[in-house]
């Protein structure tokens, strides 16, 4: 028994590889030559300049090496050809050069397009068993989930099952035997006096045979699940995994692929060029489309299809992608309606961001916890503020119109908002709030945020003035530099016609906004009007110098905090 790994624990989220390959392309590192100490430094520096990793914290430059390895493993860079593979590097491509698949990933500008790149990469059998046969871990997982569905009724596996069985088995072990093992462990665990103790004892025992740390099982499972989700076929099921229902037919089709006739060189060429999928065939694509239409109808999503225009696989798949977007939009609207009831969780996430916590355990026995991946904190700050305004509710714009960042099938963030757009725009019936966030705390905060924030608010002022809606800016950071506050205190912007715009932008720390958010929900007064009332009160002392204005804002927020404590027992 040994682990298979789709990535590595340095690059825990596959979705981040898109930015990594883009950084290499931007740095002109497209033709390899990035091995050895100097190559590791080049990789690290390219990633650092792109803001993907922090420079100065990795004396061994291993971060560059591990990012390069993760990109190569999935064929976004040409991997190093091993002697045992039976072919030469020249037959595949320049080692570490950006591949056609890598360029496709960089160009992908939607989540479905990104997922398509990962699906094509992860459907290729390049992982090796102890017997020397090749398999694709993604396809192996799909087979397990489909067999679990036949035998238990649901195509899902818990985090424990993923960690304990799925990631340490392969097709050589036999699908029937592996699923039987999963179901056996499921029963034993369900009947155990303590699930936590059961897991601990199991991993301690297995780690001796595997010669690894017991925690390695969980570390690898967490990473592998994130990569599996990047395919678009797998979604979260609690802490575990399940098939995405509307991708069921596609998942089944992928398990029918027979690659046994292909040489290892053929497979690696597929990996680097972007593998063919069953849906590249018109007949299969049509079958998958009809299955998706049926599932969309079950969800109440009504779709009009012009069947006469669907003559090729490309046209059929384009129609399927449009349906996927509609289904995703429907799911997101349901998610948005749930946020008001989850305001406590939202507040806990804010506190985690303030305290630099990666994990908050809510129920240790049942492993209920909140997580913020260390390298994704900026994205999670935007995400949690999005959820906060969905919770405050009565938005005029759709939840997917509020955010500028992308989300995956589990509504988790895929990167941050692009620099040319506001992070969030919350449009209400009578007014609009433009929300901008940052984790920057240095004296550079004003230089990085002052101009873009004012520009985004000014653009919104001009846009929404046509609707007769006033626009307010809300800036949220861990700490507010006085120079940043001064910029917003003055609040002036000149448009292209040199017309002077007086901008209303209020800066809050994460803690201050959290306290306001909790006040609104604990007092039962959560509404856009109340949010605006608080922002307006905090604007009253703009005539003061920036440090005094910051103190005034803090004093007003503290009053609300005391009211929570005195009136609501918190």
Could you walk me through the main structural features you see in this protein, from its secondary elements to its overall organization?
The protein is an alpha+beta fold and 570 residues long. The chain has four domains: 1-108, no CATH class; 125-258, Arc Repressor Mutant, subunit A, CATH 1.10.10; 291-334; 337-568, 3-Layer(aba) Sandwich (Restriction Endonuclease), CATH 3.40.91. The protein contains 23 helices and 15 strands. The chain has helices spanning 17-26, 36-49, 62-73, 89-92, 100-107, 111-122, 137-152, 159-164, 175-191, 195-210, 215-229, 248-255, 264-273, 282-298, 313-338, 343-355, 377-392, 399-402, 445-464, 482-490, 510-522, 528-539, 546-568; strands at residues 127-128, 134-135, 156-157, 234-237, 240-243, 359-363, 368-371, 406-407, 413-414, 424-427, 432-438, 471-477, 492-494, 500-502, 505-509. A four-stranded mixed beta sheet has the order 10-11-12-15, with helices on both faces. A hairpin with a 2-residue loop joins strand 4 (234-237) and strand 5. Helix 7 (137-152) crosses helix 9 and helix 16 runs antiparallel to helix 21. The radius of gyration is 26 Å and the shape is globular. The two termini are 51 Å apart.
């Amino acid at each position: 028994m040994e682990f298979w790994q789709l990535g590595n624990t340095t690059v825990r989220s596959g979705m981040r590889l898109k930015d990594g390959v883009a950084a290499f392309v931007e740095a002109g590192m497209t033709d390899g030559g990035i091995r050895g100490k100097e190559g590791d430094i080049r990789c690290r520096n390219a990633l650092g300049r792109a803001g993907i990793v922090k420079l100065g914290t990795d004396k061994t430059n291993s971060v560059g090496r591990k990012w390069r390895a993760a990109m190569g493993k999935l064929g976004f860079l040409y991997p190093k050809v091993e002697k045992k593979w039976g072919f030469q590097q020249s037959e595949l491509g320049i080692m570490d050069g950006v591949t056609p698949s890598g360029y496709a990933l960089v160009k992908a500008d939607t989540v479905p397009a990104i997922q398509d790149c990962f699906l094509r990469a992860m459907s290729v059998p390049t992982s090796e068993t102890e017997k020397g046969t090749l398999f694709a871990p993604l396809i192996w997982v799909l087979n397990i989930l489909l067999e679990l569905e036949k035998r238990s009724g649901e195509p899902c596996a818990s985090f424990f099952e993923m960690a304990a069985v799925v990631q340490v088995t392969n097709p050589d072990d036999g699908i029937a035997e592996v699923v039987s093992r999963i179901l056996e462990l499921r029963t034993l665990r369900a009947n155990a006096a303590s699930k936590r103790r059961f897991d601990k004892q199991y991993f301690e025992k297995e780690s001796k045979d595997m010669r690894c740390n017991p925690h390695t099982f969980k570390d690898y499972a967490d990473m592998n699940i994130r990569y599996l989700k990047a395919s678009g076929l797998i979604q979260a099921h609690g802490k575990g995994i399940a098939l995405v229902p509307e991708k069921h037919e596609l998942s089944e089709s992928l398990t029918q692929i027979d690659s046994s006739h292909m040489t290892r060189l053929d497979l690696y060429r597929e990996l680097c060029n972007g593998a063919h999928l069953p849906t590249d065939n018109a007949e299969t694509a049509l079958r998958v489309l009809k299955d998706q239409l049926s599932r969309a109808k079950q969800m109440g999503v009504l779709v009009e299809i012009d069947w006469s225009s669907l003559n090729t696989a490309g046209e059929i798949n384009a129609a399927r992608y449009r349906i996927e977007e509609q289904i995703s939009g429907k799911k997101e609207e349901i998610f948005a309606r749930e946020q008001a009831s989850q305001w406590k969780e939202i507040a806990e996430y804010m506190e985690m961001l303030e305290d630099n916590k990666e994990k908050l355990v809510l129920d240790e026995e049942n492993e209920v916890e909140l997580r913020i991946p260390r390298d994704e904190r900026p994205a999670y700050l935007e995400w949690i503020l999005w959820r906060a305004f969905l919770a405050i509710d009565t938005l005029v714009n759709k939840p997917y119109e509020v955010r500028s960042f992308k989300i995956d099938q589990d509504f988790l963030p895929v990167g941050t908002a692009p620099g040319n757009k506001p992070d969030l725009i919350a449009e209400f019936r009578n007014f609009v709030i433009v929300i901008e966030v940052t984790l920057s705390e240095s004296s550079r905060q004003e230089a990085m945020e002052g101009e873009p924030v004012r520009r985004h608010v000014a653009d919104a002022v001009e846009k929404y003035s046509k609707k007769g809606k006033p626009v307010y800016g809300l800036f949220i950071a861990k700490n507010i530099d006085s120079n940043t506050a001064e910029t917003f205190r003055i609040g002036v912007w000149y448009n292209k016609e040199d017309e002077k715009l007086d901008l209303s932008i209020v800066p809050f720390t994460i803690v201050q906004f959290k306290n306001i958010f909790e006040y609104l929900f604990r007092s039962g007064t959560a509404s856009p009007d109340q949010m605006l009332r608080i922002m307006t009160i905090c604007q009253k002392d703009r005539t003061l110098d920036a440090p005094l204005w910051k103190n005034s804002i803090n004093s007003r927020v503290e009053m609300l905090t005391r009211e929570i404590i005195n009136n609501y027992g918190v």
